[in-house]
Fold each of these.
Amino acid sequence: MAEFTLDDLITALKEAAGADEGIALDDILDVPFADLGYDSLALFNTLNTIERERGITLPDETVVEATTPRMLLDAVNLGLATAG
Amino acid sequence: MTDVVVTGIGVVAPNGWGVAEYWDATLAGRSGLGPLTRFDSTGYRAHVAGEVNFTPEEHLPGRLLPQTDHMTRLALVAAEEALADAGADPTTMPDFSAGVVTAASAGGFEFGQKELQALWSKGPAYVSAYQSFAWFYPVNTGQISIRHGMRGPGSALVAEQAGGLDALAKARRHVREGTALMLAGAVDGSLCPWSWLCLSRSGTVSPRRDPQRAFLPFDADASGGVPGEGGALLVLETPDGAAERGQHRHYGRIAGYAATFDPRPGSGRPPGLRRAIDTALADAGIGPSDVDVVFADASGVAERDRAEAEVLGAVFGPRGVPVTAPKTMTGRLLAGGAPLDVAAALLSLRDGVIPPSVHIGRPAHPDLDLVRDRPRPARLGSALVLARGHGGFNSALVLTS
């Protein structure tokens, strides 16, 4: 299955939790989600969207353990590889 | 008792966006009632509503959109206007010195309906995590508190259409107990099919299709109320507290308040509205002859109109006080209606003019001095606002200049 990229993540974040006009969503791989204005509920919703669209199931801990976009991309891509 | 004054007002109403537009429309007798457009009302028993349609992206940050019901978005807009009007920025105030009390009737009903639709039509994976709070009664208090850093007292009151006055009174209490600034009132509404079904089967909503004939309180042709959405939020402070941060202007005092509950049906005892008025006047330290205008609950259900007219006659005497119902131009805004009347009453005190009730062609109660069709200039020092909620709630609030 196609790799899950930062662009895919930004699309999912905007769809599931909206975007803060004051924060640019580029060069954010290692910026904590909290600094980007996304709380745990926003991530919960975003993960739900990703799981649904990619047909995968991620561990429940992902929402608290993946605190940056890079960590979340790794978790999603691991999930895709395992499912693939 | 410590004086508590209103230093800021925010309004979203079917006949006006913001205080200035609402007040212009209200004095001009411009109604915001129209055919329901939010969805097709075919098959329902009611067809006229007071809608507030707007483009949320133009008024709110994108992060708030996926997590808010329509009425919460409206509440956030009104909160921003009220704080700006008061010249207050709670994020610069000491922590816990500003709080929020709102009233609600059904929470984010439309948000909940959409998530239930997603659940049953598509499946659990399609339900938003924001359903966890977006439907909830206190959601407006929470969202306003978070957005403006108002971490002092926070609560929500539910008393159907009377709760908006109770929220203002509770906020007054917090100010008297030492909270520097409170934002209070209600913005409410849920013009979605699920809610419309419940409202239109309640026996209190007009089945008429003509927006000028649907909501006729105190009229011989009264056929029920018209639901609308919107309301008002007000900033409450002590005059000294406001002056300390450089705000010397205020709209008026919240001088008296009382809430009562009706006796059990069939008990033979009178409804509680009279007692609410008497107790609120006593709380304000004034008598009926000191009241210069009454903003009536104006149900639009003939029997309830009669009950209110009789109480007003008993307290003030025949044609003893001007009575008005500007809500004939907005519909009944659930919990938001009474705070909007409070806003209108404060603007009346400021401008020395009573806004009219509209569309009432055949007054049913000759003893009621109803202000109709045109605003009436008057020397105004005090106003009484009444609100009743389905199930027996009565609240009365006295404002003085």
Amino acid sequence: MAEPTRTPLSPRDDEPAVQSLVPSDGLKPHLPGVEPERQLNDWGRSERVEGVLDATVAEFFYRYWFRVEVEGIENVPAAGGALLVSNHSGALPPDAAMIAKAIKEEHAHPRPVNITVEHFFKGYPGFSMLIPKIGCVAAHPANVHRLLYDEEQLVLVFPEGRKGTEKLYKDRYRLRRFGRGGFVEAAMRARTPIVPACVVGAEEAAPVFAQLGLFKRLTGLLYFPITPTFPHFGLLGMLGYLPAKFRIRFLEPIEFEDEGMHEDKALVQTVAHEIRGRIQENLWDMLARRRSVWFG
Amino acid sequence: MTMDARRILVTGLSTYWGGRLAQALEAFPEVEAVVGVDNEEPQVELERTEYVKVGAQHALLRRVVEAAEIDTVVDTRLVTDSARTSPGKAHENNVIGTMNILAACSGADSPVRKVVFKSSTHFYGCEQDDPAFFEETMGRPHPPRTPIERDIVEAEASVNEFAEKHPEVDVTILRFSNVLGPDVRTSHTALFSLPVVPMILGFDPRYQFVHEDDVVHALEHAAGHPVPGVFNVAGDGVLALTEVAGLLGKQYVPMLPPWGTGLAAAALRRVGIKIPPEMLAQLRFGRGVDNRRFKATGFRYQHTTRETVLKLGEHLRLHPVVRGAQEPYRYEREVEEFLRWSPHVRNAREKSTAGLSREQLVELQRLLGSFADTAGITKGGDGEPDRLAAAEQRAAEAERAAEEAMDQARRAERAATEAGERASREAARLAEETAERAAREARFAAERTPRVGSPVEHYDDLAAEEVIALLASLERDDLQTLRDYERRHANRVRVLSAIDSVLARGETRV
């Protein structure tokens, strides 16, 4: 006998006849609900692991080691999706964690930040297990779109990507190329604002003096840097940051309200270029005001 | 666009899905005919599905399709688990078979108006640079790596080609994620039946499952609604494998090394743990799909991924206790044909009454008794049904007692496995034996003492589904009075309409 809970075989008369052509906007209400019994969300993020790290390692670095100071936190929207765009540096970059922590600590409505990372991490044993648990998401356009548009969350991207973390100490605070502007396209498609962010201090906290190509190939890592503590203190040496003073400045959001802007490649490139310029300008400004690397 | 006449062909009737789907379609009154084809005989009992022993020979199939004026073809044959058969056979079935079935549906005067193709999310593969949620439009980022994935991609390509050439036919492709459930056997249920859940060291893949019942309902939904296109079918929620192990109450063990995984898997195959290549990729990178498009067509899942895993966990704990309780069904051609076609088979209804389980019979008697009480009607003077009722009541009680005892045994056994102690396992076995003895004694007692005054349970206690389940076996008069009673009291629309439809059916039969 047919179970009564199943959907009837024939469409009822009061149903709209053809629902088969699903509008792309119509899928948002069909997002799966949250199961409160779970410890992980659908991206693999674990509140428990994140909470423990947040209360220990992140807390220590944020408050006592880097003594982070934040400007313009009000530029981060309290609700809705937003794309944070920042400069990037350090072998195991401390900037991502500090930006996330800053929003948790300073913002009127603390929100979780989804940090986009290279696909590499998903394929490397160990990282693959840990990285999603602490709120990192592979930098796939579809992932960013789902987070921004459907789930209306904060996403942090580093358009410089690997080129930013690879660069040596002598090139500090000189922004690399901003990818192919994919981040602007994602924000335009999701019609969410971009909030540029500038981080000063990360370059001195984890200076990279050289890159060893041979060891990179041997270990299969993204890169194999020489830092003050790596590789001679082992993998934990990656966390051996110098106590530089951190400053994070969030700039005014750039809004994209019109539909279909992302299809205009020229516009995408222009906007990407402009955002890069603004971040670079602000970095120079912050560096000029800084009297000491260690005390600000 | 409702097609009132539905004549459905199910391919792969002997597969788990073919059998389940045919059983499900039989229950819909608007489905006129269900024809099942396969090389092998069906594995489940079917009431009105007609089985034709024909594989994927398109000339024969076409004759069947045309003769039976099939309007809907549901293809459930696809092999999505390479542990089931050899790669050669899988290819033959998945690629060549699909082509032949589609050939049987084409032709200028073909009656087929709808094709539903059961596919798999193995279509997407598992790679390092996958998105976290595959959407139907995304396609594969890389060429397929394993033979099964290659087959699925090729099969879907030929279905797409068919859809392009035949715009008048509704073609639906459903990509199902990994299926779990108490009945279905897949490489994943086998993996989770192991004492521990094996993992690749350093990886915690994301997994999405769909419950076996949801699979059948999804196929039904696609067969009954105009939903052309490709759809992912997967339960809500994506779990990490460690989470799955936790829900199953098992320990996870990273027994596969991150490098040389294939070699280790080959070694494990020697000791009986089969991990097919497509599953190995999933154990490393995992996979999530976006299931919203199918939900937008009006389909509702009954289980989330988490609930599906929990259901499997319950079954795995129960399985050692209830194993072998049911005899497997065997298809006997002569019997099936007699039941379907002989003029001496009096009444299809009677079959279903006889098919009532003991539990349902007891419910029925209780229903009648309580109903007579509340409505103030005294049943006919003969004591026969009364005594029967009492006996059944006793039997039910006994069975309940037995169940409780079994439950205790089960709990004890669970405790035993947890403690891992020999002594308590012994105790569990003892408890199980006692339980069985108790059950036997209870049954015996039930047979011996037929006449005991029983407390009459209220009709109002029954849920709507339970009432509806009993209607088919009620007499006409009883139905009438029941209808009056229902209207006066609970007045549940679903129950009332169900009674009406049973009454209406009865009229046409007389």
